[in-house]
Prior knowledge:
Elements: H1 7-12, H2 17-31, E1 39-43, E2 48-54, E3 63-68, E4 71-76, E5 96-101, E6 106-114, E7 117-124, H3 140-154
Antiparallel strand pairs: 1-2, 2-7, 3-4, 4-5, 6-7
Amino acid sequence: MRTYDFAPLYRATVGFDQIADLMDRVVASETNANTYPPYNIEKTDDDTYRISVAVAGFSDADLNVEVKEKNLIVSAKKVDEDKKTYLHRGIATRAFERRFHLADHIVVTGASHVDGMLHIDLVKEVPEALKPRRIEIAGQKKAIETDVVDAKAVN
């Protein structure tokens, strides 16, 4: 297994702490990769996404979806009403917690539970102040006219 030293990122950059932290989390999660429950992350449009988590055997009451400090946390805990004796148990209904780190301006718009799949819809809502805008360039003639007007107003 490879190990990466991200110390140079911390020494040579200012304000990029989130990127370095994200890299640390990715490397740390590779060592204990949790594959339960399986999930998909899908880009449905330019600014919309959908996370689908396979949650067979869980009811709506067993599932919990919350956003906390830029993290989407999906968890479930099955309450065993009665102890059953299984001859074969292939459907896992063990408790789980899966975390997804959300980028800036990603907002969870809703969740639905259909046919054993939990679908979580997200959208990227960039504030108007951060969107690119076109700046009008004044021509030379306009600049001279304003200077002339200002000179007349001063005299």
